[in-house]
Design goal:
alpha/beta; 7-stranded mixed β-sheet; 3-stranded mixed β-sheet; about 10% strand; flat
């Protein structure tokens, strides 16, 4: 072995190769060392250029997203309004002036009801077109304590629908923009501003008592968020913690103000955002009990639609990177500037009447419990007949489907219509196809018999359509693709694919 090393070390080629390697390592070390020295010199130069913090050089803390908090250029009028607001919020403001400014509202509500409104505490989450108009209306109507929550900044494109923002506010946090502008109008209103994104794990802090949790809880929470995950999390938190809340559904792509209503979320229709929120809430066990502002306007030819991203954006890579935050929408939502105002004022109007106990009617939920009970009973009967047809005893058979499951399938998955005829009356749930192994009874537990039917086995049809479907498909052994035309088959598949996207929330 030693002789082998000696022979190769004495080789001229090996010596040249070793010299080249050593030279390369030396040159690389010199290059990287030089770069490190220059980099350190630049860092030192940059640090030396930063002035010491003092009265002339003031530093602001970064936001939670690592960005600098932009400071708007304050005018003399802004400085005066801010100074007046500080005095007014400390009680140094003539109550006679406040009473005169709010006299029309107090006359409408009457004194006892108006006192409730004046002492109320409202939280608004989302300060875009809807939220800003809602906040403005509440402050101008007499609400004295308002908490604002929004992570975003005013953009140039949002000025077509924002209630109070100006060109000077572009690039500044929405919460401070709204507070600053409304201090010019109602200086006595007290504000708490959170320039943060709504997070459920911060719920106690965001929706806690006034003055860092020392005061009373919110009288109402207003949801004006346009992100589904955050919206669902907020509404679920309020529902679970018995906090009164009202939510705005989608104002984008809407143009008819006469079609805007306030009602229970279970009754909201013709709104993709509402459908997605309803579906997610039902998965969490919440079917109704949340008032919402929604539009019944139907989409149609020539009307605005959600604009797709240009093809070149997909070719560049992950389109999620285009959003401000993860899971926030990246596509352009066409908005007629008047419609967010209609939604915002509808929210404010509802909250004012609720807090003041002023008589008003709110659309109730669908109230279809009896229909769901009937559909569940018919499904139970169908499963018993299918088991009996294969020679098994159906006595005591139970199905793993609840009334809430029925409501979810009928209303959210199949839109309250038969998948075959699109009719919406006399509905039923049936298996779409017969299982390969037959309709077997599950008897894994002694004394318990259950059907193997799963939610994704079921489709919505009318009672009249269920009869031949049971005879030809479930008992006759025919494939649905043989019995029904391609439109029906594709419709079923489309609903199944949609439902798969929601399975992760169960």
């Amino acid at each position: 072995m030693a002789s082998w090393f000696e022979r190769h070390l004495s080789s001229h080629q090996v010596q040249l190769a070793a010299t080249a390697v050593v030279s390369g390592i030396t040159v690389a070390g010199l290059i990287y060392g030089g770069q490190a020295i220059r980099r350190q010199a630049r860092i030192d130069e940059l640090k030396a250029s930063i002035p010491e913090l003092n009265e002339q050089h003031h530093a602001e803390q970064l936001t939670n997203f690592g960005a600098a908090s932009p400071l708007p250029i304050a005018t003399k009028e802004d400085d005066y309004a801010a100074a007046l607001a500080r005095r007014a919020q400390q009680g140094d403001y003539d109550e006679v002036l406040i009473d005169e400014q709010l006299t029309r509202t107090s006359s409408f509500l009457t004194a006892p009801r108006f006192r409730k409104l004046r002492s109320s505490f409202i939280v608004i989450v989302g300060l875009g077109g809807v939220g800003s108009h809602c906040t403005s209306a509440l402050a101008r109507s007499g609400v004295s304590r308002i908490r604002l929550i929004d992570f975003d900044q005013v953009t140039l494109s949002s000025l077509n629908r924002h209630a109070v923002a100006t060109l000077a506010d572009v690039g500044t946090p929405k919460v401070h923009c709204v507070r600053k502008r409304l201090e010019h109008v109602v200086p006595w209103v007290q504000w708490e501003c959170f320039n943060e994104v709504w997070r459920e794990d911060y719920g106690d802090r965001f929706l806690g008592g006034w003055n860092c949790g020392q005061g009373n809880k919110p009288d109402y929470v207003i949801d004006a968020i346009d992100n589904i995950d955050s919206k669902v999390a907020l509404l679920r938190y309020c529902y679970d913690n018995h906090i009164k809340a009202v939510s705005s559904m989608g104002a984008g792509c809407k143009s008819d103000p006469t079609r805007v209503f306030v009602g229970d979320i279970s009754a909201s229709i013709e709104d993709p955002l509402s459908r997605a929120v309803r579906r997610r809430l039902k998965i969490s066990g919440i079917s109704e009990g949340i008032p919402v502002v929604y539009s019944t306007e139907k989409p149609g030819p020539g009307k605005a639609q959600l604009l797709p991203l240009p093809e070149e954006e997909f070719q560049k890579g992950q389109v999620d990177e285009l959003s401000v935050l993860p899971d926030f929408r990246v596509r352009i939502l066409p908005v007629l500037g008047t419609m967010p105002a209609v939604f915002g004022y509808s929210l404010a109007n509802f909250v004012i009447l609720e807090i003041a106990n002023y008589p008003h009617d709110v659309g109730a939920g669908k109230g279809r419990d009896k229909m769901y009970d009937n559909i569940l009973a018919n499904l139970q009967g169908l499963e018993e007949r299918l088991v009996k047809a294969e020679g098994q005893d159906p006595l005591g058979l139970r199905i793993p489907v609840t009334k809430d499951d029925v409501a979810y399938l009928v209303e959210e998955v199949f839109r309250g219509k038969s998948v075959i005829s699109q009719l919406s009356t006399r509905l039923a749930l049936v298996r779409w196809r017969a299982p390969k192994g037959g309709f077997k009874i599950n008897q894994d537990w002694q004394g318990q018999k259950s059907s193997g039917v799963r939610l994704d086995d079921l489709v919505c049809v009318t009672k009249e359509e269920a009869i031949p479907h049971e005879k030809e498909v479930l008992k006759g052994g025919k494939a649905p693709e043989v019995v029904y035309d391609m439109n029906v088959v594709q419709r079923v598949e489309k609903r199944r694919l949609e439902e798969l996207q929601y399975q992760r929330y169960r």
